[in-house]
Design brief:
The complex is a heterodimer of chains A (about 425) and B (about 240). With about 425 residues, chain A is mainly alpha-helical. Chain A has one domain: Ammonium transporter fold (Orthogonal Bundle), CATH 1.10.3430.10. Chain A has 16 helices and 2 strands. Chain A has helices at about 1-25, 35-65, 70-100, 120-140, 150-170, 175-180, 190-205, 225-245, 255-280, 285-300, 310-330, 340-360, 365-400, 405-410, 410-415, 425-430, and strands spanning about 100, 105. A two-stranded antiparallel sheet of chain A has the order 1-2. In chain A, helix 9 (about 255-280) runs antiparallel to helix 10. The longest helix of chain A has about 35 residues, at about 35-65. Chain A is globular. Chain B is mostly helical and about 240 residues long. In chain B, helix 1 (about 10-20) packs across helix 4, helix 7 packs across helix 11 and helix 10 (about 195-210) packs across helix 11. Chain B is globular and about 50 Å long. The N and C termini of chain B lie far apart (about 40 Å). In chain B, about 40% of the residues are buried. Classes of the chains: A mainly alpha (about 425), B mainly alpha (about 240). The interface of A and B includes residues 212, 223 and 427 of A.
Chain lengths: ~425, ~240
């Protein structure tokens, strides 16, 4: 009897597995367009999950890079920006980005749309994850000193307005940059540079954390409270990036190359940073290495579909160097970016977008393509930085952007959420008596 | 054999060691003044705390930072010397300086009685929060002296600036500013309410951040809070309420 049940179970398993194979091997069913369509949908849905998981990566990385007294606040910002951002992007952002184009400048349809087809809806959810990623880049840069409410409002504005408008120019078929031939495969500029420039605007409006730079000009290193958490966050982001880039393919025939380039870019980013740190006699730091691999991922994002593995590695290697240099540059100008978001997403995004023009397989170093890429890069900065700066300044004026210094002393966990990340230890320095 | 760093120091030992160390750089009335300033400090202080007192005293006397830095290891060594290596207890000289004649050097209890009669009482009758505040800021100042005195002037300057900006009544601002100038707890003649004490502690924290960086500032505040929590006054008013 037991053998019979086992046989039935085995047959069921075989049937399920064969169906799965059919779904994932489009070439085996080239005649059936529905099957190919299904496999693309399934892959896109899987990618949504992977990109969503990147939020966990960001949360861990940013939390680990902050002091223990701000751990909960960082997690809360990451947890809730996707909640607020998603609703606003669905309601307004998606229409501005992918709605009917108005002179290539912005879309104007699909607002609060509940009549999209299944394929369009999955595309919307995928784009929704991208919007949330763009907003969450800011949270790491502004950690430990930005008010929670102000952050949520700013993140919502990024998801509703700043990101979708630029996204329309590049990814809407009628967007003006798209029409010019600007290449940004999965959003090195659209998502990452825009997020990076928003982060730059935010940290410039906010100012550095208490004591980060002395009046005499000394730069103080503020270590995160849990460095292994940073590494875990880095690994999760790396994993999620397979969905971020992989989900952006128009045909599954390109998937292998895109995934390979994505992976090699990350490896080369870390390698480039390690070589650069060693050659310049800097300590080979884990935090910088993790950031560099993410920088590598950002940089190959622009051209993962049009690069060969060799050029993806070159792109990654250079992004590792840019990351180390960029972090030092920001410190020199007394810009306090807790996780290095500006260097990782802003600077590496710029380089990756340029590299996509330079290393376009079959037409390398085309001056006209590089010029268009440069135009896109400059436009991204010219749009996102001033609008974000204005947004943060306005929020600062009406709501207050920066938390009070007493809250900074106590830690934002206690001051903003009335919870502490690690209740069993180290309360004395950061928190008053918790008396509910 | 090294002394137990957590144990309260023997009064004669600490007097003799400080006298030996100070007499290398100062003498006469200044030396006596320094000895009395040290004598008035907490009698239950352990070794590290006493070295902290020594540093503050040296700074208040206007000694150069480089000289003070060279005195620390000497004092540390002198505190560990066997009793027979010490010169005669300097207390009779100190009392003579203060104009007190009766003294029995063999009996520190007598000395303490004399001190009580001649030295203004250190512990003023204050509210529990005022007492805790006084203990807390003493501990913070002691912490800032280690491992060296770098950043001390930046600390004082920032503290003064922050106190000017803080929401304090003018009278209390004046008291706390006087403390910041002299780092002497005796300036607190009137009690300050807990809210204002909390503001003052916050000003101290900002000054610590400026002088030593936020990591060290957190560490100093943490140590000071933990030490203050062990004081008797902390039983009636938790020092954490001042954060």
């Amino acid at each position: 009897m037991a053998k019979f049940v086992a046989k039935i179970r085995f047959n069921k398993l075989l049937f399920w597995f064969s169906n799965l194979l059919i779904a994932f091997v489009p070439t085996a069913h080239a005649n059936s367009s529905d099957s190919v369509f299904s496999s693309e949908i399934i892959w896109l849905a899987t990618s949504i999950g992977l990109v969503f998981f990147m939020q966990a990566g960001f949360a861990l990385l940013e939390c680990g890079a902050s002091r223990a007294k701000n751990a909960i606040n960082v997690i809360m910002k990451n947890y809730t920006d996707i909640c607020f951002g998603s609703i606003f992007f669905w309601a307004i952002g998606y229409g501005l980005m992918f709605g009917e184009s108005q002179a290539g400048l912005f879309g104007f349809s699909h607002f609060l749309d509940d009549s999209l087809s299944n394929k369009q809806t999955i595309g919307l959810v995928f784009q929704l994850m991208f919007a949330a990623t763009c907003a969450t880049i800011v949270s790491g840069a502004v950690a430990e000193r930005m008010r929670f409410v102000s952050y949520m409002l700013s993140a919502s504005i990024i998801c509703t307005l700043i990101y979708p408008i630029f996204g329309h120019w590049v990814w809407n078929p009628n967007g003006w940059l798209n029409q010019l031939g600007f290449i940004d495969f999965a959003g090195a500029t659209v998502v990452h540079s825009v997020g990076g420039w928003c982060a730059l605007a935010a940290v410039m409006v906010l100012g550095p954390r208490l004591g980060r730079f002395s009046r005499a000009g000394e730069t103080r290193y503020i270590p995160g409270h849990n460095l292994p958490m940073i590494a875990l966050g880095g690994f999760i982001l790396w994993l999620g990036w397979f969905g971020f880039n992989g989900g952006s393919v128009t045909s599954l025939n390109n998937l292998g190359g895109v995934l390979l380039n994505t992976h090699l870019g990350a490896c080369a980013g870390a390698m480039g940073a390690i070589f650069f740190m060693a050659l310049t006699n800097k300590p080979i730091m884990m935090t910088t290495t993790v950031n560099a691999s993410i920088g590598g991922l950002v940089s190959v994002t622009a051209g993962a579909d049009i690069m060969i593995p060799g050029t993806a590695i070159i792109t990654g290697l250079i992004s590792g160097i840019i990351l180390v240099w960029g972090t030092t540059l920001l410190e020199r100008y007394k810009i306090d970016d807790v996780v290095g978001a500006v260097a990782v997403h802003g600077f590496c995004g710029v380089w990756g977008t340029l590299a996509a023009g330079m290393f376009y397989t079959g037409d390398m170093f085309s001056i006209s393509r590089i010029t268009i890429q440069l135009l896109g890069i400059i436009t991204a900065f010219a749009w996102s930085f001033p609008t974000a700066y204005l947004t943060f300044k306005t929020v600062d004026k009406f709501l207050g952007l920066r938390t009070s210094s007493i809250h900074e002393q106590r830690g934002l966990d206690y001051a903003e959420h009335y919870e502490v990340g690690y209740a069993e230890f180290n309360q004395a320095v950061t928190h008053g008596e918790i008396e509910k | 054999m090294a002394t137990n760093t957590m144990k309260p120091l023997d009064l004669t030992r600490r007097r003799c060691a400080a006298y030996m160390t100070f007499s290398e750089v100062i003498n006469g009335e200044v030396l006596m003044q320094a000895m009395w300033m040290l004598e008035e400090r907490d009698h239950s202080a352990d070794k590290m705390t006493f070295i902290g007192f020594f540093g503050i005293t040296a700074e208040l006397l206007g000694l150069d930072n480089n000289i003070i830095t060279t005195l620390y290891p000497k004092l540390n060594r002198n505190l560990d010397l066997p009793k027979q290596s010490y010169p005669e207890d300097p207390m009779p000289q100190m009392l003579k300086f203060r104009g007190v004649k009766k003294h029995n050097s063999a009996n520190d209890q007598t000395i303490e009685q004399v001190q009580k009669a001649t030295v203004p009482a250190k512990k003023t009758k204050g509210t529990p929060e005022m007492t805790v505040f006084a203990v807390l800021i003493s501990k913070i100042i002691i912490e800032t002296k280690f491992p060296n005195g770098n950043g001390y002037s930046a600390f004082k300057e920032t503290l003064k600036e922050e106190l000017f900006k803080a929401e304090l009544s003018e009278q209390n601002r004046h008291q706390i500013l006087s403390w910041a100038n002299a780092l002497n707890l005796k300036v607190f003649k009137k009690n300050i309410v807990a809210d204002e004490l909390c503001s003052a502690v916050h000003c101290i924290y900002i000054a610590l951040c400026e002088a030593f960086g936020p990591v060290k500032a957190d560490s100093i505040l943490d140590q000071a809070i933990q030490q203050t929590s062990k004081s008797p006054a902390a039983k009636t008013f938790s020092p954490r309420k001042l954060l």
